[in-house]
Amino acid sequence: MSDAIKTLMSEYIKDPQGIALLEDVFKNLSAEQLISQEIAIEYRQLCDALPVGVVTHNKLREVVYNNPISEKILGLTAAQMNETTPRPHGWKMRHEDGSVIPPTESPMSIALTTGKHETNIPVVITKPYGRQTHVLMSSVPIVIDESIRGVFTAVTDFTDQQVADRSHLLTDFMREASHQFRAPLNEIHDKVYDMMRKHEQLADSQDVMFINNSLEQLNALIDKLELITKLDEHSRWTIRVSDLYKLVARVVEGYRRIYAGRILLESEQTRYDVLIHDDLAVQALKEVLSNAITFSPNYGDIIVRLRPVDRLVFVDVIDQGIGMSDDMKYRVYERFYRQETPRSRRGFGLGLSVVKQIMDLHTDELHIKSKPNEGTTVTMGFNRMPS
Q1: What is the DSSP string of 126-180?
Q2: CA distance 181 to 353
Q3: What percent of the chain has pLDDT over 90?
Q4: Rounded-to-integer distance, Cα 332 and Cα 357, Å
Q5: Which carries the bigger pLDDT value, residue 381 or residue 14?
Q6: Which ranges constitute the DSSP H helices of 295-350?
């Protein structure tokens, strides 16, 4: 059975020297040693150098060895794998459909109870704050004298590939959806306009106003989907020198007209020349300000502050609203994720994911500080032109 484990490990070793080391290690390695607490130093060094996680269980399902990368991928220490110390709150092993995998149905358990090889089984590890790691698990039973004495498991992190594949599918969907939705919405808009022109009394109708507002929201959504598609496809954006203060002041003035509270603009200077894409920067600021307004149910002051720090100029948007938990802070950049409050149900959960992509094109400087019931500060940084 050591041969099966050696074959599995060889799939993750690319260089000839590594293959030679693998052969040397397994020449003198017995199956008994694999499930022993006294694992050979050479074998341990080999596993520690692998780009995948390695976990070995004995027949009592106790972890007798694991390499460091396995703890990183699984989000568990050896003690937590053995459950001698509590596992992190929220940690779960799930199928790709989201259903929880019972301990008796994990790839390791199946290999231990059936003696069959479990190869490249896709599993989703849910970690604290909703973070997910997509892994492939391969488990090989360790058989000694025709008796299953343990299991060798290799764990591969393929989260980046999974996210990239899903992102590509989502981009294709958004491109097609925005194209297909635009025409019928324009037809509805034209029909409503014709009705209002023929019947002037409809202009003040609450129903017509509701329809128009809904059409505006849907058109704004389509505009956002088209923008995300362009950002995903790495369309060429022209960055030029612009006055950041002027752009921010214009956006702030527009939102002052629709917010019942105060929006205060604070800045040491009235001109900051930065390298920026005007339209994208304005879009990012609008998204952040719109969120600040949405989550300020008591109409508290919103402060927009410009401050230079070394080569950057930061824009802070500070509200005194409902704030967010640590879990929410980890997830706000996910597309279609919405904070579950009555005021958020009218949104589509795309705002901050768009802001993140826009800031990635500029400086990658996007930060969020927030506490429940105390408010949120969103900070964006732009490259300053040398004076």
Answers
A1: E-GGG-EEEEEEEEEEEEETTEEEEEEEEEEE-HHHHHHHHHHHHHHHHHHHHHH
A2: 22
A3: 40
A4: 13
A5: 381
A6: 326-331
Residue 265 contacts residue 304 (beta carbons within 8 Å): yes
Label the pairing between strands 302-309 and 263-267: parallel
248 half-sphere exposure, CB direction, 13 A CA radius: 29
CA atoms within 13 Å, Cβ hemisphere of 386: 0
pLDDT value for 114: 93
List, in sequence order, the alpha helices (H) in the chain.
2-10, 16-27, 31-34, 41-48, 68-74, 78-81, 107-114, 159-198, 206-232, 244-256, 278-294, 326-331, 351-362
pLDDT over threshold 70, residue 339: no
Q: Pull the structure tokens for residue 73.
A: 């991928």
CA end-to-end distance (rounded Å), the chain: 69
Rounded Cα distance, 220 and 48, in Å: 51
Of the candidates 278, 259, 276, which has an alpha carbon nearest to the alpha carbon of residue 317?
A: 259
For 230-269, what is each residue's pLDDT tens digit? Answer: 676 655 677 889 999 999 999 999 999 889 899 999 999 9
pLDDT at 343: 47
- Residue 309 CB partners (closer than 8 Å, separation 6+): 381
In angstroms, what CA-CA distances link 276 with 83, 147, 227, 246, 383?
A: 51, 67, 17, 12, 8
Whether the per-residue pLDDT at 350 is higher than 60: the answer is no
Contact 26, 7 (CB under 8 A): no
Contact between 102 and 113 (Cβ < 8 Å): no
**For the segment 21-69, what is each residue's pLDDT rounded down to a tens digit?**
777 777 777 777 777 767 777 788 888 888 899 999 999 999 989 999 9
For the beta sheet containing 302-309, the strands, ordered from the edge strand earlier in sequence to the opposite edge, are 263-267, 302-309, 312-318, 375-383, 366-371
Average pLDDT over residues 95-124: 91
